[in-house]
Amino acid sequence: MTGPSSHNAWISSVQCAVSQVSDETLAEAAKAILGTHMTITAGNGGSSSLASHMAQAIAKPGRGPEACRPAVCLTDRVPVLTAHANDGGWDNALVESARPFLDAFASCCVIIFSSSGKSENVIRLAQLARERHQPVIAFTGFDGRPLRQLATVSLHVNSDDYEIVEPTHDALLHRVQQHLRHAL
Description:
Blueprint: H1 7-19, H2 23-34, E1 38-43, H3 46-59, E2 71-73, H4 78-88, H5 90-104, E3 108-114, H6 120-131, E4 136-140, H7 147-150, E5 153-156, H8 162-183
Parallel strand pairs: 1-2, 1-3, 3-4, 4-5
Helix pairs in contact: 1-8, 2-8, 3-8, 4-5, 5-6
């Protein structure tokens, strides 16, 4: 068994991954968020934590109350999510959890974090949003397909290493937050 790469090699890998996404694309993500009434975020595992962080960053971006925007992370709503998973299966749990928000708001931006881009539950959520003509921002890694192909704005990191993809997604979500602060 080999040990972890050197700290400098890891930093270099994350730096390279961050630079793969243009600042224009990050600004486009912020514009999509600002162009809707509600933001819905989701992800699985570590990506769920990033989705929660993103919803917080949108709901309270660091400026006064006038800058706060409605945002919800579906995977933070554990009782609702598990009830839908119990009744309709995990593949449909995010879709069913999102429907009340998609029905209640004239426009919603759906942000999905998925390192692989292959999880059926997040793919179905993206499909539902696109069917309803709502923007989808996808933070993906690995190959990222099919989720990144469904995205209106794709923030793709071309790495097959979770230890590169996830911290890169965290850095990128902060940059989107900076664009939001600037616009507000």
